[in-house]
Write a structure and sequence with these properties.
The chain is an alpha/beta fold and 300 residues long. The chain folds into 2 domains: 13-92, Arc Repressor Mutant, subunit A, CATH 1.10.10; 99-300, D-Maltodextrin-Binding Protein, domain 2 (3-Layer(aba) Sandwich), CATH 3.40.190.290. Helices cover 43% and strands 20% of the residues. It contains 11 helices and 11 strands. The protein has helices at 13-24, 28-35, 39-53, 69-97, 109-115, 117-126, 139-147, 203-214, 228-236, 246-250, 282-293; strands at residues 58-61, 64-67, 103-107, 132-136, 153-157, 165-179, 195-197, 221-224, 242-245, 258-259, 266-275. Strands 3, 4, 5, 6, 9, 10 and 11 form a 7-stranded mixed β-sheet that branches. Strands 1-2 form a two-stranded antiparallel ribbon. A two-stranded parallel sheet has the order 7-8. α1 packs across α3 (39-53) and α6 packs across α11 (282-293). The radius of gyration is 23 Å and the shape is globular.
């Protein structure tokens, strides 16, 4: 039964946590195990959530229970509530212990190993009181963890306008086309490709695909990797063409792949982001400023 008009439903954080878990795992059994509860407790909690919302959140398909469209709406709400609750719990714990707590930072590999290692070293030197933890992963994974309050700051490829994020521009990386061997000398009417590139869903791949489509080039992908160094080596052994930041190719040893075109195909903007409305964290504020003023790679 839904609450009377004007009254808020008595939804608990635990019920929202249950909903988040079943949406993020393949089975309810795995969700229960992840939460440390029985399947019976999980099922009862979600049934109570349905009752309090007043809408069906799951439907039967054979032996499986699948979320309804209403469940996806509630999950979006749950993500916001749970992230804010984790913020409060972490702030309270740090306050009780008399320090700012750890700072959890996520960076794509280009940011961590090329553009900002000196900035991280400077921050650690200036703020030895902050326990800095770094995670290196693709942009999409880092942004998902940021949304769940598992990270405080993320440096990634710009995800675009999003009211849930506080974004600060850092730099723009040129992306150039590279060809294997003597393929760069093919007649100009031939099209480049096939391609080795970043995986489906990657922010950088979307930038590359859009740029190639804009000039009418096919984008036949024959190999994928999240690591630009791996893509560089795929080009060098002749698997295909690629579009890469210049710093990745400059580091090749014994010799880099051939740049096929004089001008960049596209640029990818890198930004520092945090969740809008997150609780104040002095360490996060300080690192945000260090990143914003850091000198980026000299090849940009």
């Amino acid at each position: 039964m839904s609450p009377p008009e004007g009254r808020l439903p008595n939804i608990t954080v635990t019920q929202l946590e249950y909903l988040e878990a079943v949406g993020a795992t393949p089975t309810w059994s795995e969700a229960a195990s992840q939460l440390g509860v029985t399947i019976s407790a999980l099922s009862q909690g979600l049934a109570e959530l349905e009752r309090r919302v007043g809408l069906p959140l799951f439907e039967r398909q054979g032996r499986r229970r699948r979320p309804t469209p209403a469940a996806e709406v509630v999950r979006t709400h749950a993500a916001t509530v749970l992230a804010s609750t984790r913020d409060v719990a972490r702030w309270a714990r740090a306050t009780r212990q008399g320090h700012d707590g750890g700072l959890r930072v996520g960076m794509i590999d280009a940011a961590a190993i090329h553009h900002f290692p000196d900035a991280l070293a400077r921050f650690r030197s200036e703020r030895p009181d902050v326990d800095l933890r770094l995670r290196v992963a693709p942009s999409g994974a880092l942004l998902d963890e940021l949304s769940r309050a598992e990270l405080d700051i993320v440096v990634c490829v710009d995800p675009g306008d999003d009211d849930r994020l506080d974004r600060r521009a850092l730099l723009e990386e040129e992306l150039h086309v590279y060809a294997p061997g003597d393929l760069v000398a093919r007649p100009p009417h031939d099209r480049p490709g096939p391609w080795v590139t970043f995986p489906e869903g990657s922010h950088t791949r979307a930038i590359i695909a859009a740029a190639l489509a804009a000039r009418g080039d096919d984008f036949e992908v024959v190999a994928e990797s999240n690591q630009p160094e791996v893509l560089r080596e795929m080009v060098r052994v002749g698997m295909g063409w690629s579009v890469l930041p210049t710093w990745v190719v400059a580091q090749a040893d014994p010799g880099p792949p051939l740049r096929a075109e004089a001008t960049p195909l596209a640029v990818r903007p890198l930004v520092a982001v945090r969740r809008a409305g997150a609780l104040y964290h002095p360490g996060a504020e300080a690192l945000f400023e260090v990143l914003a003023t850091a000198t980026a790679g000299t090849d940009q």
